[in-house]
UniProtKB/TrEMBL annotation:
Entry's family note: Belongs to the kiwellin family.
Annotated Gene Ontology cellular component terms: extracellular region
Protein's UniProt name: Ripening-related protein 4
Lineage: Eukaryota, Viridiplantae, Streptophyta, Embryophyta, Tracheophyta
Record keywords: Secreted, Signal
Signal peptide (UniProt feature, chain positions): 1-17
Subcellular location: Secreted
Amino acid sequence: LAMFALVMFLSQLRVHGVSVSVGSSANVTTETKHLRGRCHISGFLHGKSGDCNRDHGSVCCKDGHRYPQFRCSPPVSADTPAILTLNSFARGGDGGGKSFCDNRFHKDTELVVALSTGWLRLDGKRRCNKMIRINGNGRAVLAKVVDECDSVYGCDAEHNFEPPCPYNDVDASPAVWKALGLKEEIGVFKITWSDV
């Protein structure tokens, strides 16, 4: 992915089904900054393995691995580029615990999403329990924001022992994938989204 073009590539890992490269470099800043609609890595989380539910291709943390953290997301526009990933918000699903926004579980038949940390609450606009429009595969769907795809923390029980999310993730229920005419086996799909 182009999001790590400024980072020296040393190792390959998969985060929520998205292949990314990370490494250490003197150029990597520990501050959060935007660059042409992208975010710099704001730090690294040291991995800790645990009881990870691997449904929907979930990638589990490995002891000692370093996972990138992001405290920002690109600016939101009428066509904000993002990656769509698959997540179950149901009890026992791969989403971990109850949803951040409403403290409850959601059936796989509900049109619900989780947004990367920067988009959910760090850009000055609170999107909890708001609707967003997702465009992809020649279709559009409205979905309710119910959770955070945490871009800072992970590798613990609350986060299903998964690494932090990318800075540009829309983690969607199976119902959203179905509404967009996407097969769940794809796991990752490029979309655009906007506030409603």
